[in-house]
Amino acid sequence: MSSAVFTIVLATHLIAANFATAGPFVALWLEMRGRRRGDERATSLARQAIATSMGSLAVAMVLGLVAVGLMWWRWPAALDAGFGSVPQSRLWFGGVELAFYFVCLAAYLPLARGPSAARSRSRQATLVALALLAGTDVAYHFPPLFAVVGTYGANPDSLPSGASFLALMLEPEPLALTIHFLLASIAVGGVGLSWLAIRPGTASPEIALTSGRLALAATLGQLLSGGWLVVATN
Predict the structure, then answer these.
(1) Cα dihedral sign for 66, 215, 111, 206?
(2) Closest CA to 218 of 185, 196, 195, 192
(3) Residue 89, class by beta-carbon neighbours within 10 Å (0-12 exposed, 13-18 middle, 19+ buried)?
(4) What is the pLDDT of residues 154-204, one digit of tens each?
(5) Measuring CA to CA, which residue among 115, 100, 108, 114 is closest to residue 49?
(6) What angle do CA 151, 156, 159 make, to 5 degrees?
(7) CA-angle at 131, arms to 128 and 133, nearest 5°
(8) Model's pTM, two decimal places?
(9) What angle, rounded to 10 degrees, do the helices at 3-37 and 121-154 form?
């Protein structure tokens, strides 16, 4: 298996994971916009963003397993060192976090049906809570986890002795990787929303333009976080 195949699998996994991370926050913004302005196109786009987020996470999970399998075949020592740097409970708990994400968004979709103006305050608050819980669940758990695994898999000798997982998360390289990934998620989420917002039926040029600007701002932010990452890895 060539390095090009691994690179394509990993890149596609990361793009899917980016949208899965940003999607619930995108939907939250759209729901708030739709409620405030009576914009039913925004609320329809919010439901599409949630459905796309669930599909994206499913794709990310499959490709992530493929990537891990390829790494195990080509670089088993590095993979052992990387996963050995985090508590096993943290790895097993990841399965619970993934299930929680799908449960939250699966509950969101039926509650979000119908005109936003007809929703009660409690129903609207539930939608907000479900989107926030799903988004923060993935954003907090997985980027730091794999930043630590990647950092100390590549450089096992740099692993601080006796350090807690929280301390490892806050080391310069894993922290820079995490921030870089989260900015990439905002950029991918903005581009993805722009694409959804130009499709027939729910086309909204204003939303497409705003999300495009958000993606540009996040991409510019990545230049700064990328520079920090280069410094942190040297």
Answers:
(1) negative
(2) 185
(3) exposed
(4) 787 777 777 777 888 888 888 999 999 999 999 999 999 999 998 877 678
(5) 108
(6) 80
(7) 105
(8) 0.88
(9) 160
